[in-house]
Amino acid sequence: MAEISAIVPPQRAAVAASCGAAPPDAATQPYVNTAGAIPTKVILVAEDDADTRALIVHLLRREGYEVLIARDGAEVFDVLQRRMPGLFLLDCDMPRMTGFEVCRRLKADARYSELPVIFMSAWSSPEDKATGFGSGGDDYVTKPIEKIELLARIRSHIELAISRHTLRRRAALFEALTLEQAGMLDDVRSGQESLLTPVSAVPGLTLGVRFQPAHHAGGDFYEIARLADEDYGLLVCDVSGHDLSVPYITGALKALSATFLNETLSPTETMLLLNSSLLRFLTDDHYVTASYARFSRTAMEVSLISAGHPPAAIQRADGSVEYVTITGDVLGMFEQPVYETQVVEVFPGDRLFLYTDGLIENYWDDSGHSGRGLYGMERLREALAARRGVPLAQAVDEVVAEVLQQCEGLADDDIVVVGAEF
Predict the structure, then answer these.
(1) The whole model's pTM is what?
(2) pLDDT in tens, 55-64
């Protein structure tokens, strides 16, 4: 069979020739969940169109997945009587029960509520996607489905489910540990740093990046991605809390950003997908703030969106600094978050700075107190303006060094700064 770049209904004869005999709906043996393990190589596909169903089954089996089949929404629950999947792939528009209705029932059942659900649909309006996420879905792909994109999203959500499963099993243990009892804080920090993309991995854009861990476990994270030949994405996140479960959350952010930072998704769609996934991953004790910038070299503009994060700073070529304040709900807390996007025109020599609150809240004021964000923003404005003309990477390092000097090297929180020069 020729390589398939997009899943579209072909002739039935071609499908039958490449896929063989029609596969059974599911394995007949009863499901046994050994030690609570997630069946990560088992996917339940609910699709009423026979041609599309056969192609998806062929694609997934070729990748080594065991595929369970439901020909309509109601049949999903018949299959679940015999076998448990690790992920659901649901068509939205099916007879007897829509994919949205199936998802709502799954998320209301403790046995399936934490298993990821990916919707497939020819419906692509924002309202349709909002309905999907509102019913509890973790992701939404539109038809015709791109093979590479579908497989990447499946892998990402399965990895996230594994991380979520591990996090919940270990949460009680981690909460009981003190940093002294853990005795491995340096290893935690090293693991955290290993998730961060080096500047050398993103050619074509002048960057300056600094990650400065605090003296305890923190949850700052960044990702930089080349989305297309002339487009780049910059994401900075901050996980609330300082317990030893936080590194597992940053690991999940790495997996999610690898999927959701791509050229086909708008900043709003990226933020909604991150929120939907984190909502089912995080415990009530955690949430994530984030700032995402998408730079188009062709248009010379930056699209900015924020999820409860400190304002991005734009430094113009003349050295002046302006903050871009955008409202938006934090990630992982609200079922129907609200975000806004602001587009900023940039010119050669302008710089963008995304940062976590550890940068501005570690400045000490004249009375010897830290934690004043507005005071820190004014100090940051002065620090950046004073470094007009200094190479970007050097400017970022010097700003962080100034903050560390202010707090005598004892930062209360991680510091991340990502700068880009246009």
Answers:
(1) 0.61
(2) 999 999 999 9
